[in-house]
Specification:
Elements (H helix, E strand, L loop, with lengths): L1 E8 L3 H11 L2 E5 L2 H4 L7 E8 L15 E13 L23 E16 L19 E3 L8
Parallel strand pairs: 1-3
Antiparallel strand pairs: 1-6, 2-5, 3-4, 4-5
C-alpha cells in the first residue's frame, strides 16, 4: 500500500466531508497529473493536509492549517473536462467556481482523524522529514507507523 500526502485548502474540507457523507466519495482537483498517474487506485491511502491557501481571515472552525485531518482511499483518477469534474456532485460545494484543474483524484472511505497530525516531521518516501506543508501531493511513509 502506498501513501500520499495531499494539501487541500482548509476552506474546502468541511464541504468535502459533507460531499462524502452524501455521495460516498469526494473529488479533489489537481494539476499534478504526472504525480497522480503513478498512483494506483485501490492501492493508495491519501492523507489530506489542510493548507493555508485561501484561508479565510476568521479561520475554518475545527480545521487547523498544517495538520493532517482526513485520510481516504484513492478510488479513481478522472480527467477534467474544461477544468471541471465530469460529475460536479462529487466536488465540495465550496469549489463551485474552480475551473483550473487538469484532473481529479477521487477518494472513498474518507474519515476524519480522531487526532489531527502535524505535517512537520512526517517522513517522505525517501526518508526526509517534512518541515512545512508541501505545495502539491508527495509520496510519504505511513504516518501511522513508528519511524524506522
Amino acid at each position: 500500500m502506498s501513501h500520499v500526502l495531499a494539501p487541500v485548502p482548509a476552506l474546502h474540507l468541511p464541504a468535502a466531508a459533507a460531499t462524502f457523507a452524501r455521495a460516498g466519495r469526494v473529488a479533489f482537483g489537481s494539476n499534478a497529473w504526472e504525480f497522480w498517474r503513478r498512483q494506483a487506485p485501490g492501492q493508495a491511502v491519501v492523507w489530506i493536509v489542510a493548507s493555508a491557501t485561501d484561508f479565510p481571515a476568521g479561520g475554518v472552525p475545527g480545521i487547523d492549517p498544517g495538520k493532517v485531518v482526513f485520510r481516504g482511499g484513492l478510488l479513481a483518477l478522472v480527467a477534467a473536462v474544461r477544468g471541471r469534474h465530469p460529475d460536479p456532485g462529487l466536488r465540495p460545494a465550496t469549489t463551485a467556481s474552480d475551473l483550473a484543474w487538469a484532473m481529479f483524484f477521487e477518494l472513498d472511505g474518507l474519515e476524519r482523524l480522531a487526532r489531527p497530525l502535524p505535517v512537520i516531521g512526517i517522513l517522505t518516501l525517501q526518508g526526509a522529514r517534512l518541515a512545512r506543508v508541501p505545495q502539491g501531493p508527495i509520496a510519504i511513509r505511513d504516518p501511522g507507523e513508528a519511524p524506522p
